[in-house]
Amino acid sequence: MSATILVINGPNLNNLGKRDASMYGTKTLADIQDDISAKASELGVVVKFFQSNHEGSIVDFIQESSGGADGVIINAGALTQVGYSILDALLDAGLPFIEVHLSNIHGREKFRQRSVFASKAIGQMAGFGPSGYIYAMDHITAVVNS
Fold it and tell me: Thinking of the domain 4-144, which architecture would CATH place it in?
């Protein structure tokens, strides 16, 4: 049976490709999801994508989907610093999760450098652009298949 990985993207990530290319690159979210799907196929895992600009919708998705999942990759976007309800949903789900950020949040404005997820995530990919999702997919797959 194939592992299922939830890939969750938060606010404004639906606007990738239109945002500051020097910070976020030129790929759209659909482009990134295509890359993730190709990697998932190579790894023999199933991915389920979700994006929302609303914190409660992300919580609902985690609660509704975690029962059939094995791991989570999350880019919470601007909710990284304040998304405690998302963190609670992830912890309640009991699934390993990896935090991803296209930019290096640790080199940005002070308020962006803190993550409510970092201490509970099994890892964080920050500053690798869209490749961070691929690195996260490699790692979460190794973790859930071990």
Answer: 3-Layer(aba) Sandwich (3.40)
For the chain, the structural domain boundaries read: 4-144
Catalytic residue status for 101 = yes
Task: From 52, 45, 54, 53, select the one nearest 72 (Cα to Cα).
Answer: 45
Quickly count: other Cβ atoms within 10 Å of residue 42's Cβ.
Answer: 12
* Percent with pLDDT over 70 in the chain: 100
Q: Residue 135 catalytic? A: no
∠62-116-82 over CA atoms, to 5°? Answer: 80
- Contact at 8 Å (CB) between 101 and 80? yes
Q: Is 98 helix (H, G, I), strand (E, B) or coil?
A: strand
Average confidence score pLDDT of the chain: 95
Which one from 54, 101, 135, 139 is the annotated catalytic residue? 101
Least confident among 5-19, 52-66, 103-117: 103-117
Among residues 50, 51, 73, 63, the alpha carbon closest in space to that of 141 is found at: 73
Catalytic residue among 24, 106, 135, 139: 24
